């Protein structure tokens, strides 16, 4: 299988910036599915590039799942370290508009396994700041 091409950081940032109004204000109409999917996939793949490895699986259904963070590799069955969230919450985390602790407390981010919380060390991926 051919290696996936590297994520262009400018492309990832542009995809997130295109959704900035919606990320800052959830009353703004949601972006179309293709825009949302692109931003989610690009940021998740950016995380996988910045934190290479396969000890933690990050799932953002229905768009993408990536493995990241160095350590023991998982190959079969349910991974021991899983991070799961919805697309909007992921983008808020990736953009620095939501902290992992707050997302977990609100039930928007599910962490399972001893190493899942390590993704916080790699976030945010694209800083949007306050609007």
From TrEMBL:
It comes from the Bacteria. It holds the Pfam family SCP_3. Residues 32-125 form the Bacterial SCP orthologue domain. Gene3D superfamilies: 3.30.1050.40. InterPro entries: SCP_3 (IPR041629). This is Bacterial SCP orthologue domain-containing protein. It comes from Mycolicibacter kumamotonensis.
